[in-house]
Specification:
about 70 residues, mainly beta, single chain
């Protein structure tokens, strides 16, 4: 995996996804369907098909944001 996983305030576990539009890797609330960085719809893909849901301790290097 390339890059840090962006962790948003209040999200300790959820869907571990990468946006195909802006390329950001994020831990988002379960069921999120919009990228909070570029606002693209339908652009979120699993970082790892085997590990679609994750928590902050299992996604590697992280970067925190509001």
């Amino acid at each position: 995996m390339d890059g840090k996983t962006i962790i948003y305030k209040g999200v300790e576990e959820g869907d571990w996804v990468k946006c195909s539009q802006c390329g950001k890797i994020m831990l988002l609330p379960y069921g999120a369907d919009q990228c909070p960085k570029c606002f693209g719809y339908g652009t979120l893909q699993w970082v790892d098909e085997e590990k679609q849901e994750a928590d902050i301790d299992s996604v590697g290097e992280t970067e925190y944001t509001d």
